[in-house]
Write a structure and sequence with these properties.
Number of strands: 14
Largest sheet: 7 strands, mixed
CATH class of the largest domain: Alpha Beta
Order of helices and strands: HHHEHEEEEHEHEHEHEHEEHEHEEH
Oligomer: single chain
Helix content: 25-40%
Number of helices: 12
Bound molecules: NADP nicotinamide-adenine-dinucleotide phosphate
Number of domains: 2
Low-confidence stretches: 1-33
């Protein structure tokens, strides 16, 4: 029996946890009505692959499939040779991780890629040739004019029925645009000034480990060992650790500029951005100033537009000094927005502060939403909040 078959068998044996009914069949629990309706609508199950299943983003898919009742019929977990033999525990059952190969996608209908740009470039063509819809979290194809770059709440219209490869935007671009795009209804946006405060999880499982270990070493009075970050990470922050171009911008900043323009279809949008890595384990934050073409909208209008925007939650309690934090955002699907205020230095500008769990909305959740959109799945029923600890 191939590992693929054994994975499918395990899923069956584990009573197809993905149909959601398993959770509700426990004594005393009844399926929510919305979930029952949803399952009728998505009776056909899909064969799914996750490339990068052992990574920080990949791991999120495994819980999201269940939380969003994604109709997984068979699941293929793919990673590098390093993970050969590893087994991931999914709802009490182990599924073997298999090193990726060009033939890994035979029979796969939807493939989620989260293993870096070079793996995407190598394996997206065979996956598409095998008939899979590829949703790619890497930067490999984002700026390809033929590839939709999609945040479903903002530019769902970019996905066409024939698209077989769809890119998930950079996590900081998603954070910024989820907070900014709803304000387009209040006036033409001319310029964004953004500073990010990016967590270790944005650099993957290894950077999270590094932050944890260095913090322990410093607290124990030891000199922390240098790791993948260019600077000491614990009790420190540093300019985003990606190469700097000749204009003086690092790769992350450049992605934010270009991807914001592509997603909004606004080639003239001016974006000034500084990306910084901070010693937060999970969830990115951003300070954003939005300049409008005319007078700035009122704070109340901004608050109302954001409160009505899907996927956004406003936390803006001036009296209690309570605003979004990365800890509040950790494990949450919504992007949190607050500190909504006039920019007193500019008559056309509004400032705000936003946080998101970028492993979710900045990566895996956005990817899954794209798949739901491309496959024409009905909106999943109301979901319990994720509860991943930071
Ligand atoms: N972290 C974020 O917040 C975030 C947000 C948006 C997009 N992304 C993108 O998502 C991707 C994954 O990021 P991550 O943070 O999850 O990184 P990660 O924690 O380092 O995980 C990387 C994954 O890729 C696999 N991989 C690495 N080299 C491979 C190879 N040669 N062949 C097959 N698989 C290989 C790893 O498998 P092994 O365990 O076997 O090494 C692991 O499963 C990247 O493209 C990243 O840019 C990340």
């Amino acid at each position: 029996m191939s590992t693929w078959e054994s994975s499918s068998a395990l899923l069956k044996e584990s009573h197809a946890p993905w149909d959601g009914q398993a959770v509700y069949n426990k004594p005393g629990r009844r399926p929510p009505q919305a979930a029952v309706g949803y399952h009728k609508a998505v009776e056909r199950k899909l064969s799914v692959a996750v490339l990068g299943a052992t990574g920080a983003v990949g791991g999120e898919f495994l819980t999201l499939f269940e939380r969003r009742h994604f109709p997984v019929g068979g699941l293929r977990l793919l990673a590098s040779e390093r993970s050969a033999g590893k087994r991931l525990l999914i709802r009490g059952k182990e599924i073997a991780v298999v090193p990726v190969a060009p033939t890994s996608f035979d029979g796969v209908e939807v493939a989620f890629f989260s293993a870096g740009a070079s793996r995407s470039r190598e394996f997206a063509p065979p996956a598409m040739a095998a008939g899979a819809l590829v949703i790619d979290n890497s930067s490999a194809f984002r700026m390809d004019p033929g590839v939709p770059l999609v945040i479903p709440e903002i530019n769902a219209h970019a996905v066409g029925p024939k698209d077989r490869l769809i890119a998930v935007p950079n996590c900081s671009a998603i954070l910024v645009l989820m907070a900014v795009a709803p304000l387009r209804a209040l006036g033409r946006i001319e310029r964004l000034v953004v500073s990010t405060y990016q967590s270790a999880s944005g650099g993957g499982a290894a950077l999270m480990r590094e932050l944890r270990e260095q913090t322990g070493e410093v607290l124990a009075g030891r000199e922390p060992r240098a790791g993948i970050a260019p600077d000491p990470y614990a009790f420190n922050l540093f300019s985003h650790n990606t190469p700097i171009n000749e204009a003086g911008y690092n790769e992350e900043e450049w992605k934010v500029i270009l991807e914001c323009r592509k997603i909004l279809g606004a080639t003239e949008l001016k974006v000034n951005v500084t990306c910084v890595r901070v010693p937060v384990l999970r969830a990115h934050s951003a300070s954003i100033t939005i300049e409008f073409a005319g007078a700035a909208p009122t704070e109340d209008a901004v608050r109302s537009a954001l409160a009505a925007a899907p996927g956004v939650r406003v936390i803006d309690d001036r009296a209690a000094n309570r605003f979004p934090t990365p800890l509040l955002a950790s494990g949450q699907d919504d992007v949190l927005v607050g500190r909504i205020r006039r920019d007193l230095s500019h008559p056309s500008a509004i400032s705000l502060f936003a946080c998101t769990d970028q492993l979710l909305k900045g990566a895996a959740l956005n990817a899954l939403q794209i798949a739901e959109l491309a496959l024409g799945l009905p909106q999943p029923p109301a979901l319990p909040p994720a509860s991943t600890p930071p």
